Amino acid sequence: MQAAWFEEFGPASKVLKTGEFPSPLVNPGQVLVRVRASAVNPSDVKKRAGSIPNLMDEGAVIPHSDGAGVVEAVGEGIDASRIGQRVWIYQGQYERRLGTAAELISIDASRAPLLPDGIDYDIGACMGIPAMTAHRCVFSDGPISGQRILVTGGAGRVGYYAIQWAQQSGASVIATAASEQDRTTCEQLGAVAVVNHRSESFAEELLSALGGEQLDRVIEVEFGANLEKILPAMKNSATIATYASMQEPNPALPFFQMMVKDLNIRMVLVYAMPETAKSAAVDDINKWLIAGTLTHRPVTTFDLSETARAHHAIEYSEVRGCVIVHP
Question: Percent of the chain having pLDDT more than 90?
Answer without folding.
Answer: 100
